[in-house]
Amino acid sequence: MDNIMFHELLSDISNQEKTKAVENLFAHSVPSSDFFLMVLLSVLMATLGLLADSSAVIVGSMLIAPILYPALGLAMGIIMSDFSLMTKSFITLIKASALAIALSVVITLLFSSQFGDFNTEIMARTQPSLLYATIGIVAGLAAAFAMVKPKLNETLPGVAISVALVPPLAVVGIGLARLNLTVTLNALLLFLINTAGVVFAATIMFSLMNFYAKRDTAKKVVEAEEGKILKAKNGELTINRPPETRMR
């Protein structure tokens, strides 16, 4: 009975919902300026919250963090057997992570004189375990399903809080700034465990939903988003170009 209900739940997804989910997912996974701005803001909040030992600020940083999307995009690319889509999502995730760590280092160096040793909130992000891997898997299943169902999209911020990808990255930067290799490596391992759990679980969920049939839609969405970014860059070049050059 439970298997039948589960099968009906996954099969009761229209092509329109799948198309919308693919469009939404890859629109958020392409490395746009808006995406990186939100990454910067979320990491800024997370780092300050960790240094101040404020759980409320840390939770707020998770709410605005968009880094969950490229992880889901990577899972979708795996299901669609599309190396190009996998590469784009993976590169976006790597760039966002590197940017997050770099900003955390800078913020820690600027404000380290106002804070003491590693506090409870920081040390809590340096304890990777099987429990966190399980949390990542559950969060990945929930995020993948919520991404497809329009009525459940509003639950994605809650999923982002549960899996907590941004705070460990901020702790990596804090550890680097304070030259503490143990804190840095443990926080990085926690981030990798959480991310791997999300990607693994989302891959399973997208597979059960038969998203392979939507690979053409995904390609069109990625091409459209990249076209927007290219037009924006070309527009900036035109604006910044000297008047005599534009006349030519």
Structural features, described:
This protein is mainly α. It has one domain: Glycerol uptake facilitator protein. The protein is 79% helix and 0% strand. The chain contains 13 helices and no strands. Helix 8 packs antiparallel against helix 9 (156-163) and helix 10 runs antiparallel to helix 11 (181-208). The longest helix has 29 residues, at 83-111. The radius of gyration is 20 Å and the shape is globular. The termini are far apart. The model has no long low-confidence stretch (mean pLDDT 79).
Give the topology.
Elements: H1 2-11, H2 15-29, H3 33-51, H4 55-64, H5 68-79, H6 83-111, H7 120-123, H8 130-148, H9 156-163, H10 166-177, H11 181-208, H12 215-240, H13 243-247
